[in-house]
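Morning. Coffee machine broken again, so started the prediction first thing and wrote up yesterday's gels while waiting. Chain of 690 residues, entered below exactly as on the submission form.
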Amino acid sequence: MTNNDLVLPTSVVQRKAIVYVRQSTPQQVQLNLESQRRQYDLVEIARRRGFANVEVIDDDLGRTASGTAERPGFERLVAALCAGQVGAVLCLDASRLARNGRDWHHLLELCGLVEARVIDLDGVYDPCRPNDRLLLGMKGSISEFELGLIRSRMYEAARSKAKRGELRISAPIGYIWDRHIGLGLDPDRRLQEVIRLVFQKFRELGSARQVLLWMASQNIHFPYPTDGRTLTSVDWRPIRYRNVIAILKNPFYAGVYAYGKSEKRTAIVDGRARKSYGHLKPMDTWEVFIKDHHVGYLDWAAYERNQVVLAGNAYGRVGDTKSGRGGRALLAGLICCARCGRRLSVTYTGRYPRPVYRCDKSNLQLGLRYCMSFGGKRIDATIAAEMLRAVAPMAIEAAVEAERMLRDEDKDRRRIAELELNQAQYDASLAERRYAACDPDNRLIAAQLEKAWETALRRVEACRKRLDGQQPTEVGEARPDFSGLADDLSAAWNAPRTTMRTRQRLVRSLINEIVADFDAAAGEIVLVVHWKGGQHSELRIRKPKTGEHGCHTADEAIAIMRSMAGRWSDQDIAASLNRMGIPTGQNKTWTARRVGDIRRVRDIHGYRSAEKDGEWLTMRDAAAKLGVSHHQIRKLIKAGILKSEQIIPDAPHQIRAADLEAEPVAAALKRKGRPCRIDSENQISMFSDT
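Came back before lunch.
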């Protein structure tokens, strides 16, 4: 019975009345103060109805009543009704209590059980009466329908405006909505240059993380909203990885206006609907997709290429190539298996870890036998040699292009530094004007403004020093001569300052993919190289046998040992190899012990086991037999008086014993007092025999 003058029963008035206060959003709580005031005024209405105990429940301010959010205040109200403590529930209208049929009818059912009344500005309702219950049910249904209708109108209006590209959606950093011209680039040139630099470096480096590391190394900062939401003012702070990814993945920077990129999802949790927002949808399901809507920082084709590179770096799908990330393996992420199509992974084994390419995905995922496995040292060296051979004719053009890119990079760094200096000078000028406009007698404010001015001046000085440290290359500087560069490619490739990441980037700039297979019959690894220009080439590399390694003695050293071992000691052989500059398999110098080890492994008979019949002598033996020094024997050999043989240059001399008894040798040894040399018949001596 809806009568404002109705006198409530004493059993109802003796219980407490609850005034339920709610507003749907935090913005309404802050701005719609009149609605709050009217709801709190219901306390006086409850007292006029005869209730002495009035309780206000306002825990749900800023919470929606659509059934998707928890309402602790409503739960307190339901608990009090179940306890039989409530005589009346007061609200401004039915929409304050509930916007969904489940909560509304549950509340009416409880009020009917305990004979509690529902009171609003229109009157008093008794849920126990059929007519009042019907009227309350209609009010709840109308409230629920009204909410759906308002939402539908708002969403349809927003969609209609978005289809024309006129809905002012949130614009990312680098764009701004203007009242007159609409959407356009942010007028801050420094901000524009930083965003363009992100796209430029990603095009060069091919990795978002490498862009972050480069910008961090160059001390390039990124703008952040001062208040954390709007771009009315920004603070420049060190760039983060999420900033780089957000710029590269946002199609807004490619001139695309997109609406409806995400969706909401509803799940039932504890008997109540829970909605979550921000779930991204595939691009082909976006509600609005308008290309060339505004000026972009890059075109759509470049944006699609960036997404392919990012996906390849993140997941390594078939057909994609990961960017070079360093390590010891040159071809990491670039080799595919010819048998299963999967990419070969890189593992490191051994005491001194060396890369090994292995196709073991089938073993790890399916329990099958892995396809192949081979060491990476020979593979990397072969591919590097093939690449240098292919690029040699274009070495000069590549060097000129590299020089141009280096100059452009210097210009970009200097331009960013100049814009940062301009911004710092403006901030210093603004701080100076604020300090000048301050009343000198107000020392509290003047001191703070003076401190801000000094801070701005120090920042200007730091920016100026950084700019001075980036001196541009002189225009009149002589261009270097690149005519002999093609011959130095190998030296540049193996230079200590050339990092593995740089080598990997060079390989990826020329090669799309390498397909590897193993020819068991020939014992060879077969590599099919797919070059960037569409050409293909096949390389065959002998696979080392089990136990074979790269630290082996050179064939030239083995040949020298075989020729010298029968007549010379291990110490003489080691000295000869060292003089010739031939190292061991481990790139060490030779010793008698190392020579002996190699002889025993190769089954080469040594000096001590050879027959010594006295026909051939060493220099030491010849000197002992003639009773002279080694120096005299060497002089006789050098002068051609005494004949000797050497197996190889720098090897020890071998002298026939019969040659020591020759007449020229005996005559040369008899000479005393003048150099031991051959007398010429046509030469007159400067000294007499006396």
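Residues 475-483 have pLDDT under 50 and may be disordered. Going to sketch it on the whiteboard this afternoon.
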